[in-house]
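ok trying this again, last paste got cut off
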Amino acid sequence: MSTIAEQEPTTADVPATETQPEATPPWRMTLSVDVKDIGPCKKHVKVNVPEADISYIRNFVLDEMKSKAAVPGFRPGKAPKDIIAKRFSRELNDEIKQKVLIGSLEQLSQDTNIEPINEPDLDVENLTIPDTGNFEYEFQVEVRPAFDLPAYDQITIKRPIRESGAADIDEAQQRFLEQYAELVPSDGAVEPGDSVKVCASFVYNGSTLQDHAHFTARVRSTLRFEDGEIADFDKLLAGAKAGDTREATITISKEAENVAMRGEKVQATLKIEEVDRVKLPELNRALFQRVGVETLDELRIEIEQALQRQIQYDQRQAVRKQVLDKITASASWELPEDLVLKQVENAMYREVLEMQQAGYTEPQIRARENELRQHQVSMTRQAMKEHFILDKIATQEGIEVSEYDVDTELLYMAMSRGENVRRMRARMEKSGVIENLEAQIRERKAVDVILSKAVFEDVPMEKSNSLNVEA
């Protein structure tokens, strides 16, 4: 079914030898619109469509149906409109409602400065277009915050610098190979770097929260959960063997999903069920084929490149934080709590996606994700403010993301994960996260524009402690 706008004549329909008449402006509704602010980033919209506009649309739809409808006793296009309206009343009313709503919402978007974040809260099924009189409908919608961009030129930034050497590459190679390691059971005492199978119980105020919770963890300095962590985990398990028990106190994060438990202390009892040594794979042709390289030298080159991307990621994050702290310092506008909560998972996934792009291993990403979940609300609120500001800068600077940009990111991600790039793209397109990747690239380019105008002071980069965290 065509739209009303498609029926307007175009200059292409007029022979070149004829004088072309002045183009007729497209038909528009004479809407009455009332928009009210009802909270941070929320608007209430009331739309009134006059009876004359509804009659125009009804006649337009009837003309369309008349030209196509098959009515017994009449040749195509010759059946009276009243018979068509009676015979196809349901189809007619559905089409009228669709054109009235879509047309009015599109015109509303053109005529107002409303920039919706989500679909409007509109119950279309229960709306009915009246046979006579005006049609009025209303809805609430979450919108982008309105704000003036802060100045973003000549910002002074401390830029962390770190050179990587052979020892760093050896350490990165170790982390890379651990993804393909074999776990060998051991009767000995737990050592740092071992893998342990644990049966845990968690008690709060004498009541059991979880019992017989089984998990496997590497023995590192910190064991991180989504809502809390155990510090000095390696010291806690030092000397323990299979069958031994250890106890620890966990303070629940102040932004944990369970509001009632925020800031509370939970007693954890950990029973060691099995101790395993981590046996790295042999550096042979089978492994090289598995990870997509020909030789050890080629593997080390790729590991070094991944390490450089990680250093660049750490540098970019440190610089980005300074930039965003400065440009969001004046962002006094608030975001509604329910909007922030709805975006928690998306913000979390975008952070994970960026770490994947930088070539971090799954354990490193998992540890970072659990850290973020402990501060998920404030992290998401800040990330959303950053997104709105960077998106506005990107629009002002005319920043675009090319297919080449996306292909390059996917290639790096696939390389670091040992995955086929076509398979990775297909999976990301199917799950709808390619748009997230494009948004990240666009925001990164916006940060690059700010940095191109910044004044830098180089400082030593602190080494990340993420290598000592297990999640």
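PB: full thing came through this time. Residues 150 and 327 are 6 Å apart (CA to CA).
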